[in-house]
Amino acid sequence: MVADITNLATVDVFISELQETFSHYIQKGTLEIIAPSPDYYPDLDNLPATLGDPPERMKWRTKQTLDFAYLMMYGHTKGLYYLQVEDDVVTKPGYVTKIKTFVDSQDGYVMLEFASLGFIGKLFKSADLPSFIEFILLFHAAKPVDWLLTNYLFVKVCLDNMEAKYCPKAMEKAIRKYKPSLFQHMGVESSLKGKVQKLREKDFGKVELFIAHDNPAAKKVWTTLKVYQSHTLEDAYAGKNYFWALNPQPGDTVNIEFAKPLVLASFLFKSGNAEHPTDQFYDAVVEIATGPGAGNETYTWSQVGTFRRGVAEGALAGKTPSLAVRIRATVESAFWVSLREIWIQTLPQA
Prior knowledge:
- It is built from eight helices and 15 strands.
- It is of the alpha+beta class.
- It has a five-stranded antiparallel sheet. The chain has a four-stranded mixed sheet with strand order 1-4-3-5. A four-stranded antiparallel sheet has the order 8-15-10-13.
- Helix 3 runs antiparallel to helix 5 (129-138) and helix 6 (145-158) crosses helix 7.
- The protein is elongated and about 85 Å long.
């Protein structure tokens, strides 16, 4: 869901980028993009203060609650279950299978919890959502949404002429917690200006910062970028670490020269990682060398891809053996750059 109501032109541009980047998943129906109308929201600039919050925080948390309600209203008819996640989380490997297995093993619950902090990783039966939606719409300006969730669960589970001493056990039965957490929230800066969120799931474990692949042998791996500490390109290509370097300048390159000419099947470069999400290639191209160069150029280069949202990937149908592949920066970057995944696949040679 794209929920920016302050600049509708920006929303249109962002949706167009999503449609282009994820066209395959949109066409299959796996991914849907929705955007609430500004008319859905009340006057967020004139909310009565609660909990002593200043106007800017009232506006932020109230809109966030209404955003969640809108998303649940849209999504609760799409499947048997509804799982709340955000776009700045990392997951445990195999998390979908783990969630499905846990869901299939449970019954008689109100909510399943796959992360402990905030509203992330909370799973509901879709059939139970309408009552929760009504609850948070009724009290949308009273409290933050995760506080409203606690109040809703108390009302649903404990407010049935139950003695107070039995409520904790009833809540434990109604809320089943999966351990360890399957989601880790990585965002630090909130959409509320000045709000910093440093809390982390304690039992999530170490976040994976790179993905290793068995890449073809290289005679030389080098870069014109200034490498930071031990995050070398050689180790990244070998699957031992992630590559990390200072701000790319126009013409800077990341170079992989193969030990022998290879017919390439595909390439994949992913920049940025969970700890440094902004350290990406923003304006860069991927090129392959198929022959010797002229002048100061060792090779003749042909462009085969570009970076979009930090990722460059492509299939190569050509039969001409490649001598090397490189990433070339085309614009000065305001950020450092990292490569968390390098994967070069080859075709069998006769």
